[in-house]
Amino acid sequence: MAVMRTITARWYTQGRIEDIRVVVVHDMEAPESATTAENVARYFATTGTKASAHVCVDSDSRVRCVADAHTAWAAPGANADGLQLEIAGYARQTREQWLDRFSRAALEQAAIQTAEWCAKYGLPARRLTRAQLRAGHKGITSHADVSAVYRRSDHTDPGPNFPWAYFLERVQHHLGGAQANQEETVSTPMWPGRILRLTSPLMEGKDVRRWQRRMRARGWRIAVDGLYGRESAKVAQAFQAEKRLRVTGEVGRDDWIAAWEEPVT
């Protein structure tokens, strides 16, 4: 098994504002070679381009660029709650090319890393649909799907021919098969006991941040800053109107529960 080495990226955010929810699979748009992970990691360490990933892999190595506890800059919309995994290769590759000798070895390194993350952070070893990604479910996704759901980038990696079934089978193998076809549900957290509303000074707290995070996961454009300001009130009003709740711009018990239990439309 390859020994993990570290080449620290230049650009990333210290800490996280959200809990880890997804593994985001990327390709490097770089040649297949036994030094590609190291080369791309060195690029992240020195580039003026504000980009990074948590781990880079090729056929025989895994290179750590950003600690899991910090936020890599790789997939806007899924940076705050994502673990970013770069695999040697190109989005234009055919399925046959993704399953050649080199790529199988690289996919094995990627599967080992993904399995470790799934086990450590309680992530189901399954590829999320775009609807599931938007709704805040946990699992594995692609940069392409993050781009499609959040519309904050135009990347389409790892491409349409990426062998998802093979990759997920290898992840399952390294997990011991315990998570095969597991369905994950988003449980409704207990209502915090106070109504979230516009106040002066602004109401703030973990409950505000949790509700904001949930609304953003549902697809609403909202900052997750823990402050209940005008933007939060407008999102609450729009959500209440959509779900035929009493439109107040405040988040009471029924509104809180609806944020988790109403279907995403």
Automatic annotation (TrEMBL):
Residues covered by the N-acetylmuramoyl-L-alanine amidase domain: 10-159
Transmembrane segments: none
Pfam families: Amidase_2, PG_binding_1
Catalytic reactions of this protein: Hydrolyzes the link between N-acetylmuramoyl residues and L-amino acid residues in certain cell-wall glycopeptides
InterPro entries reported for this sequence: Amidase/PGRP_sf (IPR036505), Amidase_domain (IPR002502), NAMLAA_amidase_2 (IPR051206), Peptidoglycan-bd-like (IPR002477), PGBD-like_sf (IPR036365), PGBDSf (IPR036366)
E.C. number: 3.5.1.28
GO MF term (any one): N-acetylmuramoyl-L-alanine amidase activity
Alphabetic keyword roster: Cell wall biogenesis/degradation, Hydrolase
GO biological process per UniProt: cell wall organization; peptidoglycan catabolic process; peptidoglycan turnover
Keyword Cell wall biogenesis/degradation tagged: yes
Classification via PANTHER family: N-ACETYLMURAMOYL-L-ALANINE AMIDASE AMID
UniProt family annotation: Belongs to the N-acetylmuramoyl-L-alanine amidase 2 family.
Full protein name: N-acetylmuramoyl-L-alanine amidase
Organism annotation: Planobispora siamensis
Record lineage: Bacteria, Bacillati, Actinomycetota, Actinomycetes, Streptosporangiales
